[in-house]
Amino acid sequence: MLMGLMQSQPLLISALIEFAARHHGDAEIVSRRVEGDIHRYTYRDLASRSRQVAGALDGLGLAMGDRVATLAWNGYRHLELYFGVSGSGRVLHTINPRLHPDQIAWIANHAEDQVVCFDMSFLPIIQAIHGKCPTVRHWIALCEAHALPANTGIPGLRSYEDWVAGQSTDYDWPVFDENAASSMCYTSGTTGNPKAALYSHRSTILHAYAAALPDVMCLSARDAILPVVPMFHVNAWGIPYSAALVGSKLVFPGPALDGKSIYELIEAEGVTYAAGVPTVWQMLLAHMKAHGLRFSTLKRTVIGGSACPPAMIEAFKNDYGVEVLHAWGMTEMSPLGTVCTLKNKHLGLPEDEQMKIRMKQGRAIFGVDMKIVDAEGRELPWDGKTSGNLLVKGPWIIREYFKGEGGDPLVDGWFPTGDVATIDPDGYMQITDRSKDVIKSGGEWISSIDVENIAMAHPAVQMAACIGVKHPKWDERPIVVVVKRPGAELSREELLAFYEGKIAKWQIPDDVVFVDAIPLGATGKMLKTKLREMLADYRLPTA
Ligand code: ADP
């Protein structure tokens, strides 16, 4: 083998922040703080403070690979921890603060976190769990020293500002194996205990490069990016890393995630690009509609985490001139797998044909290999019709969960996603369901996503979830659970009639159940397990 003669440098996260400081030193990072005000500084400041974090971690005597947890909103201090913790060789463990405190304690113990840094909004959680987390040696509140209340009951509690203040803004980032762990994220664990994906520096940097590509998230130094997706939800889909890689302005919403606050931040900061799950955008669009508002700078938004209803893609495009990039991924995939953008040959297609493509979850990103298989593991054709279990592999996809939980997850080197999908001849993947949500009616499968998308297109519907209910003859039949828009009128019969002609007759739900709210999980997704529990006593009128 003749070896190439190029330099070999490990791909490390510390390089991202140093690059951003050097080449985009004055690009802004703007954060709405828990304190309520707006904080702004630059990548140069971010780099200095990240180096101080690294120094402060050395000061605590933390070894390489030790876990430092965060319970924090999107903001500049959280970002400093992203670079300071991982850059210095420790592992950033972002915990979802919306989980139950017992779950948070369980996760912190499983990860063996040594330090926990938290926003003051989460002080009550920390007060509830600190006695149950024997590995945690340091509790750090992300605030100024004077904002720290007396008598919190948390031993040794320090303020972040006080902790980093004395540290030098110079720091020699260590150089180590790029396969070393950099951060970790627990899956929401809708069934069983949560399991953690442990990312490496290499996987993170490769993902950051890929995410920035024009046909992926299309990020550049001309963008002002608003990640509404939390930094505790798969590293805000990798945006903090990709933003540093391209030098874009970053705008963080902090704890204010309602439609009004998000809209005001987008307008005030000239946001060109935003990212979040569909439920967040629902609140934003409802606010804008109610007040007759327009966007002046927003151009694109990446929507994923659950299926983006076509009605939302259309509303963004037709009413506001904003392009929606529908994306699919998961915690185990860092998270990006596919993004939906058109190909050159599609540009001449009529609008409605283009929209049919845009609804799909999209094409695989270079680095992600995917296939669909039947129950016996036989590969299925890419005909856009045949659906099967979706498997993936690639350099930013999980090989094994932290501590080997759940055994070997791979099947012949492929990771089974738990999603059911079709892939068309052009390589566009479309999720029909989560395998556990598929409705099996009379031996045929009904896609709950299809049923939900149609309901969501009805103007009186705010949110819709389709679940299967036991049926003596058909095994299961779909029902659609609906939250009406405030003030809107809608009857069961009207909605059922709305389905006619849109899907096959046997796929039309047997019933409509109106509820005040659909339970949402910790990452803003509809919790169908909870919904099924809520409707445990429900009986089909057709049964
Ligand atoms: P969890 O699985 O713990 O809820 P993830 O964020 O990792 O958390 O969720 C990944 C899952 O979310 C995917 O396997 C898929 O079922 C669903 N998902 C993500 N993006 C989309 C999308 N664009 N359309 C449909 N489902 C999606």
From TrEMBL:
Pfam families recorded: AMP-binding, AMP-binding_C
The protein's matches in InterPro entries, at most eight in alphabetical order, are given as: AMP-bd_C (IPR025110), AMP-bd_C_sf (IPR045851), AMP-binding_CS (IPR020845), AMP-dep_synth/lig_dom (IPR000873), ANL_N_sf (IPR042099)
Q: Which residues form a coiled coil?
A: none
Q: Where is the AMP-binding enzyme C-terminal domain?
A: 451-525
Q: Which UniProt keywords apply?
A: Fatty acid metabolism, Ligase, Lipid metabolism
Gene Ontology BP annotations: fatty acid metabolic process
The AMP-dependent synthetase/ligase domain covers: 20-402
What domain of life is recorded for the organism? Bacteria
**Keyword Aminoacyl-tRNA synthetase applies:** no
Q: Which Gene3D superfamilies does the entry mention?
A: 3.30.300.30, N-terminal domain of ligase-like (3.40.50.12780)
Molecular function (GO) terms for this protein are: ligase activity
What protein family is recorded?
Belongs to the ATP-dependent AMP-binding enzyme family.
**NCBIfam families membership:** PRK06018.1, PRK06187.1, PRK07008.1
Do you know which PANTHER family this protein is assigned to?
ACYL-ACTIVATING ENZYME, BUTANOATE--COA LIGASE AAE1-RELATED
Protein's name in the database? Fatty-acyl-CoA synthase
- Protein's organism: Tibeticola sediminis
